[in-house]
Amino acid sequence: MGIPRYDAEAVLQQGRLADLAIRLIRDGRERVLHCWGRNGPERELALASQVPDGVLPVFLGNGLGVAVEKLAHTGPVAVVDREDALLRAGNSRVLPERIPGVRRFSGPVESVLRQIRQWSRELGRMPHVVPLPFYLRLDPSYYRALASAMSSEHVVPADRRYAGPQSPEGLRESSGVPAWSRYPRFVSRLPRVLLLTKEYFLYREIQTALKRLGVSFATVSVGESERMQADFVRNFLETVARFQPDFVLTVNHFGLDREGKVAEQLHAGRLPLASWFVDSPELILHDWPGLDLPNVAVFSFDAASVPGLQKQGYAYAGYLPLATDPERFHPNSPTRRDLWSNVTFVGESLTDRVRGLAARLGNETLAQMLEKQGKAFAKSPARSPMLFLRETAPDLASKVEGLDREARLAAVSLLTFAGSRWYRLAAVSGLSEFSPLVIGDAHWPELLPAEGVRFAPRIDYYEELPGVYVGSGVNFNCTSAQMKGAVNQRVFDVPACGAFLLTDQASQLAELLEPGREIAVYEEVEDIPDSVRRWLTDGSRRRSVAQRARKRVLAQHTYEHRLQRLLQTMRQTFTNLA
C-alpha cells in the first residue's frame, strides 16, 4: 500500500531553500507537512556532523540536500529516496545525481539493501544509516523498514581487523574459544560497543550519547518481530568478527532468544553482554531461565528490581534510571499553537494493549477475571503479579500457573496493564475541571467526559513532544503500574524543556529530583485536582521549580551520564574475562 498522494513545494527564505512542504491528501482532506520546520538547513547539517569518519553514509531521504553535499566532500554517499516530487521541488544543484560520489537508490527494500551492501564491500566502508525523521513518518513501510534492516557500523581500524573466516560455519571451532572471539578487549581508553537494535524509543538516545562520548560502535538489527530472524545470528557473528567489540549492548534483552542460542554464542566467546531494562524486568524475564551467565551484566531503570536480579546470579546487576537527551528536549523547541494548554497529558489509554493481551490469552473468562483484579494490583505495593495473585486470589493464581509459558506471560502482562489502565484513567479524570488537553489514542474520547476536555491524536516523540511540553502550564504525569516506584522518562524530558511537571509520588523520585523544590508531586489520585489548582495559580513558583529541575537534569540526568556509568561498569566488571 503506497503513501497518500501529495504535492511538494519549496519554502524559501531570502532566496535560499529553507524547507520543503507537502500537501498531503488523505481521505479527501488536505494536510500540510514540513520536512524540517524552523532552522531546516542547520538541523540537517547537524546530522552530517554526527557521522563518523571512514564509513559509507546512507541517507534515508535527501531532504534539503545540504547534509549529503557536505559529506560528499569527504567520500562516497548513498541516498535512498523515491520521493520524486520532493526532489523536483528542492534545489536542483544538490540533487543526488548531480553530486560527484553520490548514488541514489529507490527500488524495493530488499533490492536497495543488496545494492548498498555490495557497494559498501567494494569501498571497504561499513554502511552508516542517517535517517531523516520526516521520511520515516512520510512512508514508514519503506524508510523505517530500511532503517531497521541496515547495520550502522564504524570501520574497524586496520590493526584490529579480523582476517579469518567471515561466516558462522567458519567462525565456529570444535573446542576452546571460537576464532571470531580471539582478540584483546578493553585495551583502548574508550570501549567499542556492538549495539543490538530494533525500533524502540531508547535506541536513538543511546546512539546519540555514544557518538557524543566519542565511543566507536556498530549496530546489528534484531528485526521487529518477536521471533528471531533467520539471518540474525549470521549477521551478529560476522559483525563481531569484523568490528571486534569489547562488549554487546541491548535493551530489554532484545536479540536474545529463549532457547539461549545467542547467549550460548556469547558465553562460548567470552564476550560480555550488557542488557538495560527500561521496562519491568519481572515481565520481560518471566519464565526465561538460563541467562545468568558470568559474561552477562544487567542494568535496571527500577532500583527495587535490582535485589531480585542480583539473586539470579548475573555477573553484575545494578540500577540505571532513565534520562533525557537535552539536544532534543530543550526550552527552544518549536511549539504548535493548537497544542498550547494550561494542563496537558500525553499518553495512551492502554485500551488496545489490554485488548491485545486478552486476545493472546485466548480465554475470555480468565481474561475478564484478570482485568477485574487490575485495580487491586495497581493499588497494591506488590511488585510481582504472580505473588499478588497467590496472596489475594489463590484460585485465580492456580489457573494462571496451569497455563503454558506464553499464556502465563500474557496473563501476568494483562493483569499489569489492566491495573495501569485503571490508574491512568482515574488520574487523568481528575484533570477534567481544568479543560485539559489529552494527547493519545482514539479511545480517550470514549473514556473521558467530552465537556471541557480537548483531545488530540498521537504526536511524534522526537519532533513534536518537546514543543508540547514547552507550551503547557502544567504537564501531568502518572506512572504505569508495572513501574512500582520507578520513574519514566517524562520526569527528565519535561524539566529538560524548562517546563513544569506534576507527577505521582514515586518512591525512587526523591533520589533524582527534590519534590517541592525541583518537581511537584501528588500522593493520591484524590489529591490531583487540588494539586493542579494550587500550581496553576502560582506561575512564579512553577517557573522557579522548572528552572531548578532543568539545572539538576542537565548536571546529572542525561543519557551521556547513564552511558558513561554503563561503560565504566562494563570495563570494571569484565576487563579480565577474555
TrEMBL record:
Q: Where is the Spore protein YkvP/CgeB glycosyl transferase-like domain?
A: 435-568
* InterPro entries reported in the protein's UniProt record: YkvP/CgeB_Glyco_trans-like
Supply the name of the protein.
Spore maturation protein CgeB
Q: Which organism is it from?
A: Paucidesulfovibrio gracilis DSM 16080
The organism's taxonomic lineage, starting at the top: Bacteria, Pseudomonadati, Thermodesulfobacteriota, Desulfovibrionia, Desulfovibrionales
